[in-house]
Each structure stands twice: as C-alpha cells, then as structure tokens.
Amino acid sequence: MKIKFIPPAAALLSLPFACALAASGGNSTGQILKLGVGARNAALGDAGAADSWDSSAIFWNPAGLGFVKRCSVSTSYSSLFESVSHGAASAACPVDSLGALAVGGQFLNYGKIASRDNQGALDGEFSPSDKVFSASWGFGVGKIAAFGVTAKRLSVKIDEHASANAADIGLMLRFSAITVGAALKNTRGKLKLGEVSENLPKTATIGAKADLDPITIMADMNSAKDGGWISGGAEYYFSPKSEGSPVTLRAGYSTRMKTKGNNLTFGAGIAEKSWALDYALVPYGELGLTHHLTVSYLFGKTARKTSARIKDKSEPFQDRRGLPSDHVILIPTEMIPQNYKP
C-alpha cells in the first residue's frame, strides 16, 4: 500500500478560497476551474465578467465573444508557489453573422511529489496535474446584447486519472461606456476519483466595466459553494511619447485571498500595433509573490463598418448623395470652361 503525501506547496493552492470555507459545508474539487486566467485580469483582482476584447473571454464570460470583431490568440503563464505553475492558451475568430467561435486550454502542474509506502519510506515520485479543454460560441443580439456558451472537458491526474464535463453560460450588455455581464460557470458535472464523487465548483458571477478614457474600471461579485467574494480594479493607459506604444498601469483588490489584509494586486502592460504584453504581481502574504505573464495577438480585419473621411476639403471631388457613380462623368478641373457655372 502506498500513501501519497502532498507537500505544502500543492495544498496552498486552496488558500485563495479559504476565506469562504468556514462558512460552507465543504469544498468542491477541480481547483483549476477556480483559477483566473490572464495577467491583465490578475492585476485587476481577477475581475473579468464584463470584459470582451479578445479570446480570453472564453475563460471569464463566453458572451464576450459576441462583441469580438477581430481574430485573436493569447497565451498565459503563472508561476505560483514553489514548483506549482498554471498556464493557458486560447484562440477566437468571428464567423460572419454567426458570432465568434473560440477554443482554449488550461493546465495546472503541481510539480513532483514524493510517494511513500505504509511504513513511511520513500517509494518514488508522481506528478499530479489538472487540464481543461474548452470550446465556446458567443453571438450578438442587436448592438447591445450578447450571449455565449462554453463546453469544457476536465481531466485530473493524481495517482489515477479522472475526468468530467462542465458548461458555462453567459450574458453581456453594452451601453456606450458601460458594460455589464453575468456568467454561470461549471453548471454541471461531477468528478469521481476512486469511490469518491464530488461536484465541480459551480460559480455565479455578475460584473461591470466602465471605459472612462483613459481609465477603465472593472468589478465582479461572485457566489459559489465555498462562499462569496468581490474583486475589481482599475487601469490607466498612456503613451510616453505622442506616437509611442501605449503603456497601461493596473491595480486591483480581491476579498477572496485573505492574506492578512494584503489583498492588493498590481500589473502593467504595453501594446505595439497588434501585439500586447501584460504582467501581474499578486502577493500572497507569507506564501510570497506570484508572477503572471500574458502575450496576446490580434489579426484579421475588423468586422465593424467604418466610413471614409476626407480630411482635405479642397479636393475637387467628394462623396455626396445623388446618382450612382456609374451615372456620373468626372471631368478634371483644368478642362472645365472658365465661364461654366454649375
């Protein structure tokens, strides 16, 4: 018989959620489903229910894909405690009038853990890990509303393997500079390890975002079996030079971490044309600092319709309402008689 000893580093992954355990009758499995994705959101206290600018919406609120106008890819990596790491990747693209489709994946690696027999003697090592694969569809209804759904496949490896299916649904409403969103995540499915079957961490989130150029503010209210928490933050973007790359500074706060009152989060980002690089620093009190890095890339033409504007009003020809262009004959100004009056 073997006894698996999980070192403190792996067990500490549950500490961000410990604030709610005292008020609940127990905790659900699937720790990877509780972790936020992306350095930008980490710097904003892990708020993102009303965010919708790229493929990362698949992890926060699939309805955000309904407002995505360009194809995008994103990859993130988080260095947590000791040898524990968390990573994610996603891609999304609008499909004509059908909205946008996205795929994504996450992994949570607990590092190598010592295995001991029933006498306490070392008996090798094993490497626990969690993986999630997701597929999402988000679509807009008019210019204000968007809906989205996500299907997930969770795979857990400890000494044995186990898997479960889950689903997310979301709604988002955009009113000029204000966006509100709601998502219900991990709505179904149980994970069975050995003879024990546990519910996945179902979570309901309501969030809001205010784009107050050049400041953006986001906040989420969350409710789960573990309890409830509030998260949010603000970002300020500017260009060091008139035509320089935009730089963004971020700060956030979450009531979920409960690390002796030090629940602040920090981060920064820089964008260059279609590329964006974001970093976040999240303190966990005596556990130390965690580091989060995300690289994003936008490509393809925007689906939004834009009207051409003529900056030089002295140009001889301008677009005007009237006859179709094939019914109009254009004559150079130098060939028009001097006594001609239109």
Question: Can you offer a commentary on this structure?
Answer:
A hairpin with a 5-residue loop joins strand 2 and strand 3. The chain has one domain (2-299): Porin (Beta Barrel), CATH 2.40.160.60. With 342 residues, it is mainly beta. It is built from four helices and 19 strands. The strands form three sheets. It has a 14-stranded antiparallel β-barrel. The protein starts with a strand and ends in a 43-residue tail after the last strand.
Strand order across the largest sheet: 2-3-4-7-8-9-10-13-14-15-16-17-18-19
Classified by CATH, the class is Mainly Beta
Which secondary-structure class do the elements indicate? Answer: mainly beta
Q: Which runs of at least 5 residues are low in confidence (pLDDT < 50)? A: 1-26, 303-328
Summed up, the helix count is 4
Write down the domain tally: 1
Main sheet properties: 14 strands, antiparallel, barrel
The proportion of residues forming helix, as a percent range, comes to under 10%
Q: What fold name stands as the CATH topology?
A: Porin
CATH architecture, by name, is Beta Barrel
Please trace the helix and strand order, writing H or E for each element.
EHHHHEEEEEEEEEEEEEEEEEE
Q: Would you report the number of β strands?
A: 19
The gyration radius over C-alpha positions equals: 25 Å
How confident overall, as mean pLDDT?
80
CATH superfamily: Outer membrane protein transport protein (OMPP1/FadL/TodX)
Strand content: over 45%
Shape: globular
Whole-Å distance between the termini?
100 Å
